[in-house]
Amino acid sequence: MNLNLSNLKVILGVIYLVIISAGLFLLFSTIDPQDLISYEFIKSNKDIFLQYKNENLVSLTVLFFIFCIIWVLLLGFALPLLLFSGFIFGKWWGTFIVLTSTTIGATALYIIVGFFFRDLIEKYLKIKFSKLVKFFKKNDTIYFMIYRFVGGGGAPYPIQNILPILFNMPVKNYVIATFVGSLPAMFITVSIGSGLENILNKNEKITFFSVISSPEIYIPVVGFFIILIIAFFVKKKYLKK
Question: Does residue 51 sit in helix, strand or coil?
């Protein structure tokens, strides 16, 4: 029985990897991820994006929401999504869309990888993150929330998404910690994207000075550095080695 279950997991795992590979191929054959954070791409297509949003807000929201889930599930990182979401939807609605969708995508990734590849994750990550696991086992929700808030201590976003596999974090706690812990940094990054949209509406020609001197940009940037400082001290206090 165990052998059959093991074989089934291997087969399903291979199918999952094939789907991911096919999805990545289709994604990169139709869109360049750099375009989502490219100033020239955004500037040249600004009117098209905003007109479509004004005429099809609901459908664009649904499509982008689904796209974000798939993006995080396949690629694991979220920065381009945050800037693009702020540019198109504004900081408030944009933050809600991208925070909710990336939380769902990260949770789906956590569940799938935990089911198919738990042994591999424990083999390659358990020793490296053993000290963090001890902290997480004390109160997984609070400590993983802090871990998200401090940016995973420099760990790549995909690693952050699957790390709780090492301490069997309940899905409910994972969702809460990911949503709340990711909120501050995501809001600031989305606000920067929203600021770019406001600047483009005011200026035909964008210069470095016009960008950095704009309140729509420098206020979120200052907020971002404040978060970095807070995260540094929080990390020192709660995630000591």
Answer: helix
From its phi and psi, is residue 203 left (phi > 0), alpha (psi between -120 and 50) or beta?
beta
Amino acid at 89: F
Query: Would you say 178 and 212 are in contact if contact means Cβ atoms under 8 Å apart?
Result: no
Structure confidence by residue, pLDDT tens digits, 102-149: 999 999 999 988 888 888 888 878 777 777 777 787 788 888 888 888
- CA–CA dist 212, 126 (Å, integer): 42
Retrieve residue 95's tokens: 């933050």
The verdict on pTM exceeding 0.90 is no
Q: Is 117 helix (H, G, I), strand (E, B) or coil?
A: helix
**Residue owning tokens 């291979």:** 14
Neighbours of 166 (CB within 10 A): 20
